[in-house]
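Dear support,

Our group has been running a series of protein-ligand predictions, and this particular one with zinc ion is the one our PI (initials K.S.) wants archived with full inputs and outputs. We had some confusion internally about which version of the output was final, so please treat the block below as the authoritative record. The input we submitted was:
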Amino acid sequence: MRGPLSLLLAVGCGANLLMGGAPEDAMAKVRANAALLTTRALASDAAYRNLGSLCDDVGHRLSGSASYGRAVEWALKAMRDAGLSNVHAEKVMVPHWERNTESARMISPTPQELSILGLGMSVPTPKGGITAEVVVVSSLEELATLKDDQVKGRIVLFESPFKGYGPGARMRFSGASAAARKGAVGMLLRSVASLSFDTPHTGTLHYDADAPAIPAAAVSVENAMMMRRQWDRGQKVIVHLEMNCRTLPDAEAANVVGELPGASKPGEVVLVGGHLDSWDVGQGAQDDGVGCILSLQAAHLIHEQGLKPARTVRVVFFANEENGNRGGEGYARDHKAELPNHVAAIESDSGNGLAKGFGLELHPREGGAAPDAAKALAVLNLLAPMLEPLEASRLTLGHGGVDIEPSVMVGVPGLGMNHDTSKYWEVHHSKADTFDKINKEDLARNAAILAVTVYGLADMPSRLLEP
Ligand SMILES: [Zn+2]
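Confirmed final output from the archive:
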């Protein structure tokens, strides 16, 4: 028997939500189509071919650069080729930072070139560079314990072993201003990376208004550890740093958007996306070419199977996640009126490791009551049986994503795709983030996971949150 009672037993409290106007037949259809999508996704190499093209035909694509402009053209064509409708670019203004030439050289105790990569949005050094003694600290907290005269006129090196992305990223983001407040003239950061072959990893920094803006660069793990050893031995470490980066006036860029219009509820939207911009080194393969290509492939598979989900599936390639998030902010601003009818916003932005599921992030609508998280999770878990064959049925509360955050903060349910990141920090934000590291089978499986989730949310009777 497969009546309402057995369904209730099978899926727990989520079934309550189905009993009103949501016959079991509807979910049976969703499950059958999800199985079709899974089979097709695992056999398709379209995502792999598309990501290879984005990486090799466009390459890295920092916001404001000419190559970001080429990426937009590439994306418009890729979305049309994938069968999407209403394909268009939505203009946003983005920060425009250029790296230009940069170098660092140890003067003392052992003269040698150092491997550096300037931090995004850094100011340049004065012409001819700076030469200064290095002070080594392991954290913002340790820096705070130093007296100003221990820091004044020096370069502060933050050197701490990788303990996950968060702690290192915090030093990268806030370290320059913290050091400058104590009189430092420059900042170096041990690259935030879980593996290094002398490859520095960049990322954005932030200058506080109440501190002088000083030049800042990531240094390779090997070079940072050497300076730490020299410092611990009591040797005087002197470095010459020269950076010729510059920040130009804001430039025009765009989010790229395409849709599969909903068959019966076209005003209700399931958004799925990643960010099209990348850092200006490597190919932005995992960060976040993968997120864009998986989103595109999810929609393409639904279209290719001839499925016509009730709700609209909207693919968004966001601009400027790396150094400003103007794409995510622009989307939330320009689509404000339809956000209450965004059933979910889904983001993939942590590489191509196999996904284990999704994290659901909920916030109240402006002036609204707290969302019913238990109910939303129960609805989301109706997808679990379809994701179990892909070992991706872990559907819990969690973090959505940076690009979707401005929409999620005003009440759109956010879903972050939880990839295995154990290899991601080896290549993230470095020259090594290239297509050759992409595992084809993992990409296909991630596409299956995303396709099932997008389709399920677009075609199941219930919404995560009622309007
Ligand atoms: Zn990213």
